[in-house]
Amino acid sequence: MKKKLLFVESNTTGTGMLALKKAVSWGLTPIFLCNKPERYLGLEETGSEVIVCDTNSIDELKKTIEANVRVDEICGFATTSEFYLEAVATLATHYGLPGNPPEAMRTARNKSLTRQALAAAGVGQPRFAIVRGQADLEQALATVPVPCVVKPADDSGSNDVMLCNTLAEVEAHTLKILSVTTNMRGQATAGTVLIEEYVDAPEFSVEMFTWEGKTTCIGITEKSLTGFPYFVESRHIFPAKLASDVEEEIRSTVIKALAAVGVKNGATHTELKLTPEGAKIIEINARLAGGMIPELIRLATGVDMLEQQIRCSVDGPKDLVVEYSGHAGIKFIMAPEVGVLSEIRGAEAAQNVAGVQQVIVTGKPGAAVQPPQNAYHRLGSVIVKEGTYEETVTTLETAIEKIEVVLEESVIKN
User: Fold this and answer.
1) For position 1, what pLDDT does the model report?
2) pLDDT of the chain along its 414 residues, tens only?
3) Nearest to 213 by CA among 100, 77, 90, 321
4) β-sheet with 404-407: strand ranges across
5) Distances in Å between the alpha carbon of 262 and those of 116, 170, 257, 266?
6) Measured between alpha carbons, how far is 271 from 293 in angstroms, rounded to an integer?
7) Which uninterrupted H or E stretch holds 2?
8) Residue 144: helix, strand or coil by DSSP?
9) Domain 4-97 annotated CATH 1.20.120.530
10) Residue 187 belongs to what H/E stretch?
11) Per-residue DSSP letters for 217-284?
12) Domain chopping of the chain, boundaries
């Protein structure tokens, strides 16, 4: 019986380690391929076999697998890391196991390729220009005038996504992005910058599962962002409060977008803006949502997104029946100014607010902190579950007001 599930790296926020434990609980043998085991807190407690190799090389991955694993015992390949989606798709295709086409994952990972695929399919999206060097800037700004959003084509976590208001800002930020040649996992970057029309409209994300080309919508998440010039998510509420015809337009737009990119299997997290002209796709992530959105979905529907995603690596999602039982929300703890963190107070008081499910503090005393420029700068979160959208918003605000970010010479309420 095929029982070995091979993971190629994971994210580092805990979901990856939980995925390994879930595989063990189902009687599978997870094998974790990684290049730096020390990156993963709690890896030794997951019950998985760890094999160290160069995970940034497909050839090395294949050699390692064939030297250490009986191929006829492999039931699937998985990852919870954005940076290894294409590698997992390539391995699954090579060994004839469930997965996405590698070219689809390449298109989803590189946002400039996503933009081109959506344009060819006539899917709504912002105006855009692709820049691979300073010589492309003049033409790009003729296509997309300032103010505009400038971002790397293949990073994650809102890293280096910035609203630029002047030509000088566009040029400086473009050159900054182009100067980065490797990402945080040591992979070569695409060396490509996207310059996009700034769309001033409400933002949502759509959480879906696709299996053998058939897509099921789990729900739509309302997203709130920090102030300019950066676009870091500060709050999520699931499900969003929308009219049924608006929900249908959003769902149909995303399904068309996924087909354009070529997604066949697994979870997707698609971000969009809802404009008077209709839904416009901001980006497609061929993975589970971050920002604890899967936990909000579990609280509001009972659907375990992580479990279903792992199953998509083996034999497909099970019992994807979505029934809402209220709303769930998260608000992130953030530092409103630059400083050195002394402590974060009020977590226990926030936890005692009725409706609060979980208070997470990730900021460490002595660490340098700042207003967030990407998701990695957040200092924790509060998660709530309530019956209505309005109650969810109120409880989030009540709980977060009890949190104090204490810097070395000041006390700041969130």
Assistant:
1) 59
2) 579 999 999 988 768 899 999 999 999 999 999 999 999 999 999 999 999 999 999 999 999 999 999 999 999 999 999 999 999 999 999 999 999 999 999 999 999 999 999 999 999 999 999 999 988 998 998 999 999 999 999 988 788 999 999 999 999 999 999 999 999 999 999 999 999 999 999 999 999 999 988 899 999 999 999 877 888 899 999 999 999 999 999 999 999 999 999 999 999 999 999 999 999 999 999 999 988 999 999 999 999 999 999 999 998 888 788 999 999 999 999 998 999 999 999 999 999 999 999 999 999 999 999 999 888 899 999 999 999 999 999 999 999 999 999 999 765 667
3) 100
4) 368-369, 339-345, 404-407, 410-413
5) 13, 32, 9, 12
6) 13
7) none
8) coil
9) no
10) none
11) EEEEEEEEEPSTTB--EEEEEES----HHHHHHHHHHHHHHHHHHT--SEEEEEEEEEETTEEEEEEE
12) 4-97, 127-197, 199-325, 328-414
| One-letter amino acid for residue 149 of the chain | V
pLDDT at res. 412? 64
The reply to whether 4-97 and 328-414 are identical in fold is: no
Cis peptide before 336 (omega within 30 of 0): no
Instruction: Read off the DSSP letter of residue 313.
Output: T
Burial of 297 (0-12, 13-18, 19+ CB in 10 A): buried
CATH of the domain spanning 199-325:
3.30.470.20
Dihedral (CA of 261, 264, 269, 270) sign:
positive
Superfamily designation of domain 127-197: ATP-grasp fold, A domain (3.30.1490.20)
| Widest CA span in the chain | 61
Question: What are the residues facing 162 on neighbouring strands?
Answer: 150, 230
Q: Are strands 339-345 and 368-369 parallel, antiparallel or unpaired?
A: antiparallel
Length of the chain: 414
Amino acid letter for position 320? L
Edge-to-edge strand list for the sheet holding 49-52: 49-52, 29-34, 4-8, 74-78
CATH 3.30.470.20 corresponds to the domain 328-414: yes
Integer-rounded Cα Rg, in Å, for the chain is: 21
Q: Which of 188, 195, 114 is nearest to 152 (CA)?
A: 195
Give the closest residue to 251 by CA, choosing from 196, 296, 204. 204
Distance (Å, rounded) from C-alpha 318 to C-alpha 326?
22
Determine contact, residues 194/130, Cβ cutoff 8 Å. yes
